[in-house]
Amino acid sequence: MIGVFDSGVGGLTVVKEIKKILPDAPIIYFGDTARLPYGNKSQETIQKFSSEIAEFLKKKGCRTIVIACNSASALAADYLREIYPDLKIYDVVSSGAEAAVEATKNKKIGVIGTTATINSSVYKKKISELDPEIEVFTKACPLFVHLVEENWIKRPETRKIARTYLRELKLNKIDTLLLGCTHYPLLEKIISGVMGRRTKVIASGEKLAKELEKTDLETGFPSEDEYFVSDLTPHFEKLAGKILGKRVKILKIEI
Ligand code: DGL
Q: Which CATH architecture has domain 2-91+206-252?
Protein backbone atom coordinates (compact mmCIF):
# COMPACT_ATOMS: atom_id res chain seq x y z
CA MET A 1 0.00 0.00 0.00
CA ILE A 2 1.46 3.39 -0.99
CA GLY A 3 0.44 6.39 1.09
CA VAL A 4 0.63 9.68 -0.79
CA PHE A 5 0.07 13.05 0.81
CA ASP A 6 -0.03 16.76 0.04
CA SER A 7 -1.56 19.87 1.55
CA GLY A 8 -4.35 19.74 -1.04
CA VAL A 9 -5.13 18.73 -4.57
CA GLY A 10 -1.57 19.15 -5.93
CA GLY A 11 -0.33 15.72 -4.87
CA LEU A 12 -2.87 14.17 -7.23
CA THR A 13 -0.59 15.26 -10.08
CA VAL A 14 1.94 12.84 -8.57
CA VAL A 15 -0.70 10.10 -8.14
CA LYS A 16 -1.50 10.50 -11.83
CA GLU A 17 2.15 9.85 -12.77
CA ILE A 18 2.40 6.87 -10.37
CA LYS A 19 -0.73 5.37 -11.93
CA LYS A 20 0.69 5.74 -15.45
CA ILE A 21 3.68 3.57 -14.51
CA LEU A 22 2.15 1.41 -11.77
CA PRO A 23 -1.57 1.20 -12.63
CA ASP A 24 -2.22 -1.59 -10.13
CA ALA A 25 -0.35 -0.14 -7.18
CA PRO A 26 -2.94 0.52 -4.46
CA ILE A 27 -2.82 4.09 -3.19
CA ILE A 28 -4.18 5.84 -0.15
CA TYR A 29 -4.18 9.61 -0.66
CA PHE A 30 -4.49 12.29 1.97
CA GLY A 31 -4.93 15.99 1.11
CA ASP A 32 -4.73 18.30 4.09
CA THR A 33 -7.21 20.78 2.62
CA ALA A 34 -8.33 22.15 5.99
CA ARG A 35 -4.79 23.34 6.74
CA LEU A 36 -3.62 24.37 3.26
CA PRO A 37 -1.39 26.19 2.35
CA TYR A 38 1.72 24.63 3.83
CA GLY A 39 3.98 26.87 1.77
CA ASN A 40 3.79 29.86 4.09
CA LYS A 41 4.11 27.92 7.35
CA SER A 42 7.07 27.30 9.65
CA GLN A 43 9.17 24.14 9.67
CA GLU A 44 7.82 23.18 13.08
CA THR A 45 4.22 23.32 11.87
CA ILE A 46 4.93 21.51 8.61
CA GLN A 47 6.74 18.74 10.55
CA LYS A 48 3.81 18.43 12.96
CA PHE A 49 1.22 18.18 10.14
CA SER A 50 3.39 15.76 8.15
CA SER A 51 3.95 13.39 11.07
CA GLU A 52 0.21 13.35 11.84
CA ILE A 53 -0.50 12.36 8.26
CA ALA A 54 2.29 9.75 8.21
CA GLU A 55 0.82 8.22 11.37
CA PHE A 56 -2.62 8.07 9.75
CA LEU A 57 -1.23 6.44 6.59
CA LYS A 58 0.83 3.98 8.64
CA LYS A 59 -2.30 2.96 10.59
CA LYS A 60 -4.06 2.41 7.25
CA GLY A 61 -1.37 -0.14 6.41
CA CYS A 62 1.00 1.91 4.24
CA ARG A 63 4.63 0.87 4.40
CA THR A 64 5.68 3.21 1.61
CA ILE A 65 4.99 6.91 1.86
CA VAL A 66 5.29 9.45 -0.92
CA ILE A 67 5.54 13.06 0.22
CA ALA A 68 3.82 14.61 -2.80
CA CYS A 69 4.30 18.13 -1.47
CA ASN A 70 7.53 20.04 -2.00
CA SER A 71 7.06 22.18 1.10
CA ALA A 72 6.72 19.07 3.29
CA SER A 73 9.54 17.32 1.39
CA ALA A 74 11.83 20.31 1.94
CA LEU A 75 11.06 20.80 5.61
CA ALA A 76 9.88 17.45 6.97
CA ALA A 77 11.31 14.56 4.87
CA ASP A 78 14.43 14.05 7.05
CA TYR A 79 12.31 14.37 10.18
CA LEU A 80 9.83 11.72 8.97
CA ARG A 81 12.69 9.37 8.02
CA GLU A 82 14.12 9.78 11.50
CA ILE A 83 10.88 9.09 13.37
CA TYR A 84 9.67 6.37 10.98
CA PRO A 85 12.75 4.25 10.20
CA ASP A 86 10.36 1.37 9.41
CA LEU A 87 8.69 3.23 6.50
CA LYS A 88 10.10 3.74 3.00
CA ILE A 89 9.78 7.46 2.42
CA TYR A 90 10.00 9.05 -1.02
CA ASP A 91 9.94 12.79 -1.55
CA VAL A 92 9.31 14.95 -4.59
CA VAL A 93 12.30 17.22 -3.97
CA SER A 94 14.91 14.47 -4.39
CA SER A 95 13.17 13.23 -7.55
CA GLY A 96 12.70 16.74 -8.93
CA ALA A 97 16.36 17.66 -8.41
CA GLU A 98 17.49 14.50 -10.23
CA ALA A 99 15.07 15.07 -13.10
CA ALA A 100 16.26 18.67 -13.53
CA VAL A 101 19.94 17.70 -13.50
CA GLU A 102 19.27 15.07 -16.17
CA ALA A 103 17.33 17.56 -18.31
CA THR A 104 19.65 20.58 -18.40
CA LYS A 105 22.17 21.00 -21.20
CA ASN A 106 23.44 24.52 -20.43
CA LYS A 107 23.69 23.87 -16.67
CA LYS A 108 21.27 26.67 -15.80
CA ILE A 109 18.19 25.48 -13.95
CA GLY A 110 15.29 27.53 -12.66
CA VAL A 111 13.17 26.27 -9.77
CA ILE A 112 9.83 27.72 -8.74
CA GLY A 113 7.95 26.75 -5.60
CA THR A 114 6.24 27.96 -2.46
CA THR A 115 7.94 30.43 -0.13
CA ALA A 116 8.75 27.61 2.34
CA THR A 117 10.40 25.47 -0.34
CA ILE A 118 12.39 28.30 -1.92
CA ASN A 119 13.51 29.79 1.42
CA SER A 120 14.74 26.36 2.55
CA SER A 121 17.30 26.38 -0.35
CA VAL A 122 16.77 22.63 -0.55
CA TYR A 123 16.90 22.56 -4.36
CA LYS A 124 20.12 24.58 -4.55
CA LYS A 125 21.67 22.15 -2.07
CA LYS A 126 20.44 18.93 -3.71
CA ILE A 127 21.28 20.06 -7.25
CA SER A 128 24.78 21.19 -6.29
CA GLU A 129 25.37 17.82 -4.57
CA LEU A 130 24.48 16.14 -7.88
CA ASP A 131 26.47 18.57 -10.06
CA PRO A 132 28.32 21.52 -8.46
CA GLU A 133 28.76 23.23 -11.85
CA ILE A 134 25.04 23.82 -12.28
CA GLU A 135 23.70 27.29 -11.55
CA VAL A 136 20.30 27.30 -9.85
CA PHE A 137 17.96 30.29 -10.01
CA THR A 138 14.88 30.22 -7.80
CA LYS A 139 11.67 32.14 -7.43
CA ALA A 140 8.84 31.74 -4.91
CA CYS A 141 5.42 31.92 -6.60
CA PRO A 142 3.03 31.72 -3.64
CA LEU A 143 -0.10 32.83 -5.52
CA PHE A 144 0.05 29.85 -7.89
CA VAL A 145 -1.25 27.39 -5.26
CA HIS A 146 -4.37 29.49 -4.68
CA LEU A 147 -4.96 29.98 -8.39
CA VAL A 148 -4.85 26.20 -8.86
CA GLU A 149 -7.08 25.50 -5.87
CA GLU A 150 -9.54 28.03 -7.38
CA ASN A 151 -9.23 26.25 -10.74
CA TRP A 152 -8.08 29.50 -12.39
CA ILE A 153 -5.83 27.51 -14.64
CA LYS A 154 -6.73 29.13 -17.94
CA ARG A 155 -7.46 32.68 -16.84
CA PRO A 156 -5.72 35.72 -18.36
CA GLU A 157 -5.15 37.01 -14.80
CA THR A 158 -3.12 33.86 -14.06
CA ARG A 159 -1.03 34.37 -17.21
CA LYS A 160 -0.31 37.94 -16.13
CA ILE A 161 0.81 36.83 -12.68
CA ALA A 162 2.98 34.11 -14.26
CA ARG A 163 4.66 36.71 -16.50
CA THR A 164 5.53 38.82 -13.47
CA TYR A 165 6.83 35.88 -11.43
CA LEU A 166 8.89 34.38 -14.26
CA ARG A 167 10.44 37.56 -15.68
CA GLU A 168 13.76 37.25 -13.79
CA LEU A 169 14.13 33.56 -14.55
CA LYS A 170 13.76 34.28 -18.26
CA LEU A 171 16.58 36.82 -18.05
CA ASN A 172 18.82 34.16 -16.48
CA LYS A 173 18.71 32.10 -19.70
CA ILE A 174 17.77 28.87 -17.97
CA ASP A 175 17.11 25.91 -20.30
CA THR A 176 15.17 23.92 -17.67
CA LEU A 177 12.47 25.08 -15.32
CA LEU A 178 11.52 22.69 -12.53
CA LEU A 179 8.03 22.97 -11.12
CA GLY A 180 9.00 22.68 -7.45
CA CYS A 181 5.42 22.52 -6.20
CA THR A 182 3.01 19.71 -7.01
CA HIS A 183 0.21 22.18 -7.71
CA TYR A 184 2.13 23.80 -10.56
CA PRO A 185 1.80 21.03 -13.22
CA LEU A 186 -1.80 22.23 -13.54
CA LEU A 187 -0.43 25.57 -14.75
CA GLU A 188 2.08 23.96 -17.08
CA LYS A 189 0.55 25.36 -20.27
CA ILE A 190 0.61 28.91 -18.99
CA ILE A 191 4.12 28.56 -17.53
CA SER A 192 5.54 26.96 -20.71
CA GLY A 193 3.87 29.65 -22.80
CA VAL A 194 5.50 32.39 -20.73
CA MET A 195 8.94 30.74 -20.70
CA GLY A 196 8.99 30.06 -24.45
CA ARG A 197 10.08 27.06 -26.48
CA ARG A 198 13.74 27.11 -25.44
CA THR A 199 12.96 26.24 -21.82
CA LYS A 200 11.98 22.72 -20.88
CA VAL A 201 9.37 22.79 -18.14
CA ILE A 202 9.50 19.66 -16.00
CA ALA A 203 7.84 18.24 -12.89
CA SER A 204 8.98 15.62 -10.38
CA GLY A 205 6.08 13.12 -10.55
CA GLU A 206 7.32 11.00 -13.43
CA LYS A 207 10.82 10.57 -11.97
CA LEU A 208 9.38 9.66 -8.58
CA ALA A 209 7.07 7.09 -10.18
CA LYS A 210 10.04 5.51 -11.98
CA GLU A 211 11.91 5.26 -8.68
CA LEU A 212 8.92 3.59 -7.05
CA GLU A 213 8.79 1.13 -9.93
CA LYS A 214 12.30 -0.07 -9.04
CA THR A 215 11.41 -1.01 -5.47
CA ASP A 216 9.58 -4.03 -4.13
CA LEU A 217 6.12 -2.75 -3.38
CA GLU A 218 4.09 -4.88 -1.03
CA THR A 219 1.37 -6.88 -2.73
CA GLY A 220 -1.65 -8.75 -1.44
CA PHE A 221 -3.64 -5.66 -0.42
CA PRO A 222 -7.04 -4.75 -1.80
CA SER A 223 -6.46 -2.79 -4.97
CA GLU A 224 -9.15 -0.13 -4.38
CA ASP A 225 -7.54 3.29 -4.04
CA GLU A 226 -8.79 5.47 -1.22
CA TYR A 227 -8.88 9.27 -1.11
CA PHE A 228 -9.13 11.29 2.09
CA VAL A 229 -9.10 15.01 2.86
CA SER A 230 -9.33 17.05 6.04
CA ASP A 231 -12.00 19.30 4.47
CA LEU A 232 -14.23 18.38 1.57
CA THR A 233 -15.93 20.74 -0.85
CA PRO A 234 -17.68 19.99 -4.17
CA HIS A 235 -15.00 22.16 -5.72
CA PHE A 236 -12.25 19.80 -4.52
CA GLU A 237 -14.11 16.77 -5.87
CA LYS A 238 -14.46 18.41 -9.27
CA LEU A 239 -10.80 19.37 -9.44
CA ALA A 240 -9.67 15.92 -8.28
CA GLY A 241 -11.77 14.30 -11.00
CA LYS A 242 -10.26 16.59 -13.59
CA ILE A 243 -6.68 15.74 -12.55
CA LEU A 244 -7.23 11.99 -12.29
CA GLY A 245 -9.41 11.83 -15.40
CA LYS A 246 -12.21 10.08 -13.51
CA ARG A 247 -14.51 10.69 -10.59
CA VAL A 248 -13.28 9.19 -7.34
CA LYS A 249 -14.91 8.80 -3.98
CA ILE A 250 -13.35 11.22 -1.48
CA LEU A 251 -13.94 11.03 2.25
CA LYS A 252 -13.48 13.75 4.81
CA ILE A 253 -11.62 12.56 7.87
CA GLU A 254 -10.15 14.02 11.04
CA ILE A 255 -6.65 12.86 11.83
N1 DGL B 1 1.63 21.27 -3.21
C2 DGL B 1 2.47 21.86 -2.20
C3 DGL B 1 3.93 21.82 -2.61
O4 DGL B 1 4.31 21.05 -3.47
C5 DGL B 1 2.21 23.30 -1.89
C6 DGL B 1 0.91 23.77 -1.51
C7 DGL B 1 0.90 24.58 -0.25
O8 DGL B 1 1.51 25.64 -0.14
O9 DGL B 1 0.22 24.09 0.62
O10 DGL B 1 4.73 22.53 -2.03
A: 3-Layer(aba) Sandwich (3.40)
Active site residue 141: no
User: What architecture does CATH give domain 94-204?
Assistant: 3-Layer(aba) Sandwich (3.40)
Block means of pLDDT (10 residues each) for the chain, 255 residues, are 95 96 94 95 97 98 96 97 97 98 98 96 98 98 93 95 97 97 96 97 97 77 84 92 94 95
| 120 CB within 6 A, ligand 1 | no
Stated pTM of the model? 0.94
Active site residue 62: no
If you measure from the C-alpha of residue 209 to the centroid of ligand 1, how many angstroms do you get, rounded to a whole number? Answer: 19
Q: Which atom of ligand 1 is nearest to 38's Cα?
A: 9
CB burial of 136-170 (b: ≥16 within 10 Å; e: otherwise) equals bbbbbbbebbebbbeebbeeeebeebbeebbeebb
